[in-house]
Write a structure and sequence with these properties.
Blueprint (H helix, E strand, L loop, with lengths): L16 H18 L13 E6 L5 H12 L3 E6 L11 H9 L5 E6 L4 H6 L5 E7 L5 H15 L6 E5 L6 H12 L3 E5 L15 E3 L2 H7 L2 E4 L15 H8 L3 H5 L6 E3 L12 H4 L6 H21 L2
Helix pairs in contact: 1-5, 1-11, 2-11, 5-6, 5-11
Bound molecules: phosphoric acid mono(formamide)ester.
Phosphoric acid mono(formamide)ester binds next to α2.
Length: 307
């Protein structure tokens, strides 16, 4: 049986092309499972998974929990708020205490880039990165690729524009790695202040003109302005951002050819996307959420084979 080259999922940067193919192909099988009347398989019946979230989440947290339950794993959920982290316990002590209760896998979201990498070298459990600060969000990139492939087939040669706050986005970096490993052509687009200078060195195109990006791409993956991570003003006002970089349904309808609109959520309606764009036939935003469960089932199932 084919296996992953790693026992943790810390970032897309560490995955091989074969790993990505294997995860996406396995997810296709799990998508069939979750569309059956009985959505559950016994694959992880003997495994206990802790979802350890030090940062807010709606989609990722629920999606992992559903994926785990549909694989018949035992699941415990931990939030930093309301925990003994507030009393000064370290990350490693917190996780080692959770592992002492016979937990096999840790799914972790943390505001510090590298936190899951730090843990993975110090604990015996498999670690899955559910988003580490502004660094990587590997399962989001995998579910984004899965969703693009459902619409467009093989991504080699396809043009993907990632539009918005690239500087503060973990989704952008994971998507760039994931798409490039599949042979896609990637552009990042946003205000100069929200595109890090090192982007061009990653081999992506850079644009500051949203209409140019939309005209160029097959897929527009639009990112949220992450005000909670911005210590200084990167643009004069949300109104001005929306005026120059916001995407409306009319802009999408006026393009010469079909375009797929994506967003990892949560959406700031009226800022990066108008409601009529987010809810338009161009949008596959809720398909992304549906696919997230199948992709996370695939990741957990494959990592469990490495045990
Ligand atoms: N896309 C994403 O990571 O959403 P949440 O922050 O709600 O998990």
């Amino acid at each position: 049986m084919p296996q992953l080259s790693t026992r943790h999922l810390l970032g897309i940067k560490d995955l091989t092309q074969n790993d990505i193919q294997l995860i996406l192909e396995t997810a296709t099988q799990f998508k069939d499972v979750i569309n059956r009347p009985i959505k559950k398989v016994p694959s992880l019946r003997d495994i206990t998974i802790a979802n350890v979230f030090f940062e807010n989440s709606t989609r990722t947290r629920l999606s992992f929990e559903l994926a785990e339950k549909r694989l018949s794993a035992d699941v415990v959920n931990f939030s930093a708020s309301g925990s003994s982290v507030k009393k000064g316990e370290t990350l490693l002590d917190t996780v080692n205490n959770i592992l002492a209760m016979k937990v096999d896998m840790i799914v972790m979201r943390h505001s510090s880039p590298g936190a899951p990498h730090y843990l993975s070298s110090r604990i015996p459990a498999n670690v899955v990165n559910a988003g580490d600060g502004t660094h990587e969000h590997p399962t989001q990139a995998l579910l984004d690729s899965f969703s693009m492939r459902e619409k467009l087939g093989d991504l080699a040669g396809k043009r993907i524009a990632i539009i918005g706050d690239i500087t503060h986005s973990r989704v952008a970096l994971s998507n760039i790695f994931c798409l490039q490993k599949q042979g896609a052509d990637v552009m990042v687009c946003g205000p100069t202040t929200l595109i890090p200078k090192h982007m061009a060195s990653l081999g992506v195109r850079v644009s500051h003109d949203v209409r140019e990006a939309l005209q160029w791409c097959d897929v527009a993956n639009v990112l949220r302005i992450q005000l909670e991570r911005q210590q200084i003003k990167y643009f004069p006002s949300l109104r001005e951002y929306s005026l120059y970089f916001g995407i409306s349904r009319q802009m999408l309808d006026e393009l010469d050819r079909p375009i797929v609109l994506m967003h990892p959520g949560p959406i700031n309606r009226g800022v990066e996307l108008t409601s009529d764009a987010a809810d338009s036939p161009h949008s596959i935003i809720l398909d992304q959420v549906e696919n997230g469960v199948a992709v996370r089932m695939a990741v957990l199932y494959l990592l469990a084979q490495e045990r």
